[in-house]
C-alpha cells in the first residue's frame, strides 16, 4: 500500500524506480521471507555451503518471479488502478509506463527467475513457482478478482505457496510440514485482506470490484474476519501439536493468535476506519513474527 508521500515522490521519479515499484516490493518482501523460512526449516541444523548457495539462488529466483507476477498484475489492472486512490500513483495507472513496456519487464523478470531456479535449485521448485505466478497473475487477477467476492479466499492459495517453494528448493520434494505452513498463510490471507478492504470499500466500489465489503456489507465482512482469526489461531497450533516445533513457537503463536483474535473481536463490536487500519497492520506483524518464531524455535537446542 502506497502512502501519500510515496505517491508524491513518484511524480518525478526515475524510470528504474517506476519499474521497481511495479514489483510491489513490500508484498514481495513478505513472500520471500516466508519462502526463506520454508528453506531453513527444511534443513536440519545450519545449512552447509552447498545448501547456502541453493538458498540464495532460490530466494533470488522466487523474488524475481514474484516481482514479475506483481508487475503483470499492474498491467492487467491499470484501468482499475487509475480509479482507486490507493493505486492511482502507479506508473501504469498514470500512463507513464506503457503496456508493452510493463509486459516486457514482467516477462524478463519471470524468465530470469525461472532460469535461476532451473539451473541452480531444481525443476520442481521452478514449476511450482511458475504455477504460483499463473495462479496470482492470471487465475486471481484476470478471473477471480472481478467475478466473485470470494476472490481472496480462492486466490489466496497461490499467495500461500512461498513456504512450499522454499521447502521444495532444499528437499526436492514437498513434505507435510510445508503444506502445514501453506495452510496457515491460506487462512491468514482473508482476515488480513478484508481488514484493508473495509476501509477501502469505496475505492473498490468505484473500481467495480466485488470485494466482500462491497457485495455483502461492512457487518458481514467483520463477522467473517472474527471467524477466520479463530480458525487461523487453531491452525497456528498445529506445528507444535505435530511435533514440528517446540515450546518457544507455541508461546509465540498463542500470544500472536490471541492478539489477532482480539483485534477481530474489537472490529466486530465497533467499526472504525482507524481500527481497521490497525488490524490490517497487526496482521502483517502477526505473520512475520509467527514465521520468525518458527525459525528461532528451529535453531533452539
TrEMBL record:
Positions of transmembrane segments: 27-46, 52-76, 103-121, 127-144, 151-170, 176-199, 220-241, 247-268, 280-300
Protein's cellular compartments: Cell membrane
Main location: membrane
This protein's pathway: Porphyrin-containing compound metabolism; heme O biosynthesis; heme O from protoheme: step 1/1
One Pfam family in the UniProt entry: UbiA
Listed HAMAP family: CyoE_CtaB
Function according to Swiss-Prot or TrEMBL: Converts heme B (protoheme IX) to heme O by substitution of the vinyl group on carbon 2 of heme B porphyrin ring with a hydroxyethyl farnesyl side group.
Protein name: Protoheme IX farnesyltransferase
Gene it is expressed from: ctaB
Amino acid at each position: 500500500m502506497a502512502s501519500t508521500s510515496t505517491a508524491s515522490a513518484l511524480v518525478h521519479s526515475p524510470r528504474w524506480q517506476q519499474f521497481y515499484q511495479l514489483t510491489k516490493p513490500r508484498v514481495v518482501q513478505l513472500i520471500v521471507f516466508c519462502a526463506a523460512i520454508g528453506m531453513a526449516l527444511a534443513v536440519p541444523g545450519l545449512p552447509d555451503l552447498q545448501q547456502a548457495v541453493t538458498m540464495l539462488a532460490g530466494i533470488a529466483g522466487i523474488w524475481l518471479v514474484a516481482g514479475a507476477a506483481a508487475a503483470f498484475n499492474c498491467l492487467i489492472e491499470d484501468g482499475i488502478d487509475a480509479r482507486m486512490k490507493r493505486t492511482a500513483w502507479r506508473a501504469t495507472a498514470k500512463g507513464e509506463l506503457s503496456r508493452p513496456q510493463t509486459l516486457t519487464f514482467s516477462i524478463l523478470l519471470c524468465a530470469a527467475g525461472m532460469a535461476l531456479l532451473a539451473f541452480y535449485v531444481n525443476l520442481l521448485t521452478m514449476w511450482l513457482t511458475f504455477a504460483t505466478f499463473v495462479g496470482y497473475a492470471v487465475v486471481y487477477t484476470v478471473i477471480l478478482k472481478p467475478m466473485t467476492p470470494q476472490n481472496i479466499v480462492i486466490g489466496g492459495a497461490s499467495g500461500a505457496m512461498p513456504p512450499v517453494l522454499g521447502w521444495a528448493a532444499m528437499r526436492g520434494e514437498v513434505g507435510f510440514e510445508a503444506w502445514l505452513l501453506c495452510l496457515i498463510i491460506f487462512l491468514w490471507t482473508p482476515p488480513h485482506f478484508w481488514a484493508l478492504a473495509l476501509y477501502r470499500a469505496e475505492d473498490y466500489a468505484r473500481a467495480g470490484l466485488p470485494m466482500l465489503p462491497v457485495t455483502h456489507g461492512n457487518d458481514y465482512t467483520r463477522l467473517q474476519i472474527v471467524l477466520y482469526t479463530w480458525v487461523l489461531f487453531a491452525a497456528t497450533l498445529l506445528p507444535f501439536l505435530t511435533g514440528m516445533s517446540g515450546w518457544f513457537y507455541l508461546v509465540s503463536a498463542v500470544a500472536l493468535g490471541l492478539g489477532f483474535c482480539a483485534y477481530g473481536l474489537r472490529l466486530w463490536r465497533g467499526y472504525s476506519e482507524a481500527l481497521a487500519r490497525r488490524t490490517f497492520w497487526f496482521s502483517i506483524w502477526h505473520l512475520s513474527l509467527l514465521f520468525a518464531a518458527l525459525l528461532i524455535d528451529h535453531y533452539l537446542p
